[in-house]
Amino acid sequence: MYDDITELFLTNFHKVARIGATAAGGVHRQAATVEDQQTRDWFANFAAERKWPVQVDQIGNMFATVQLTDAPDARSILVGSHLDSQPFGGRFDGAYGVVAALHAAQAVQRAVAEDNLIATHNLVVVNWFNEEGGRFAPSLMGSAVYAGNMDLGTMLAVQDSDGTTVAHALDAIGYRSKHDGPKDIAGYAEIHIEQGRILEREGLQFGVVESSWYTQKLAIEVLGEQSHTGATAMADRRDALVGASHVVLEFQQICEQFADEALVSSVGQVSVEPNSPIVVNS
Ligand SMILES: [Zn+2]
């Protein structure tokens, strides 16, 4: 059924994967960058070509509404994922879910028009802002503000490493509004590439998520004392980087105390001061 939509999906998926493409076959498309803007424009055009109205909310989420029923009290099913990527990330993460949702919505709309389906709900395809958090921490920012789990004002004031705020970055790419997104949502579905190893190990193509992980992100400050790498005796050194190295290894060892695959942990970001080849770090 609808081979033409499958073909269109593949064409469009490859088109989106070229935006911010990296030499390694992935994409570099961090939140509210020019590359993110280009994928957003592609999303908006896809919707406009089908006369689906697009809304952008106050935290930069995009919603394309596919009206399937005239029932005045019909609620919507939200489907989608995110078009932003990790720094030098994979091309399937997030983008697959958004592009697939758009094409699935088109297939459902056609089935309803051809009387093959009777719709009780409308569809809304969503592209969440800053799901990854690589440029602006924390991750899941757009979806969490939408769900009421993070404060809009606090998140708009978050800065990237250059001091650019979320509000400013969204304004710069033209994807921030004064409005809320659609409210009357009956359910949410997201198609996503598996980032673990279960499907491959079990030889399965698809799976349904039964649970997800609980995350805790910690900022740890290890304080030492700056001194000269040549002139300072070993006994006198208070080397912050040595201390931090113990912390890094400790996080590995903690995981070994739990059942296999029950706990994972990494130190993902380190900033060292003053980070000079001839200075004991402080
Ligand atoms: Zn993702």
Shape label: elongated
Bound molecules: zinc ion
| Spans of at least 5 consecutive residues with low confidence | none
Give, in spatial order, the strands making up the sheet with the most strands.
Answer: 1-2-4-3-5
Total helical segments? 8
Radius of gyration: 23 Å
Oligomer: single chain
One letter per element, helices H and strands E, the order comes to HHEEEHEHHHEHEHE
What integer is the average pLDDT?
95
In which range does the helix fraction lie?
25-40%
Q: What's the β-strand tally?
A: 7
Q: What share of the residues does DSSP label as strand, in percent?
A: 5-15%
Distance between the termini: 64 Å
The main sheet comes to: 5 strands, mixed
Structural class: alpha/beta
Task: Write a structural description.
With 282 residues, this protein is an alpha/beta fold. Helices cover 32% and strands 10% of the residues. The chain contains eight helices and seven strands; from the N terminus they run H-H-E-E-E-H-E-H-H-H-E-H-E-H-E. The protein has helices at 3-17, 34-49, 95-113, 141-146, 152-156, 166-173, 198-202, 240-256; strands at 54-56, 62-66, 76-81, 122-127, 185-189, 227-228, 279-280. The strands form two sheets. The chain has a five-stranded mixed β-sheet with strand order 1-2-4-3-5. A two-stranded antiparallel sheet has the order 6-7. Strand 3 (76-81), helix 3 (95-113) and strand 4 form a beta-alpha-beta unit. The longest helix is centred in the middle third of the chain and has 19 residues, at 95-113. The radius of gyration is 23 Å and the shape is elongated. The relative contact order is 0.13. The model has no long low-confidence stretch (mean pLDDT 95). Bound molecules: zinc ion. Zinc ion binds next to loops.
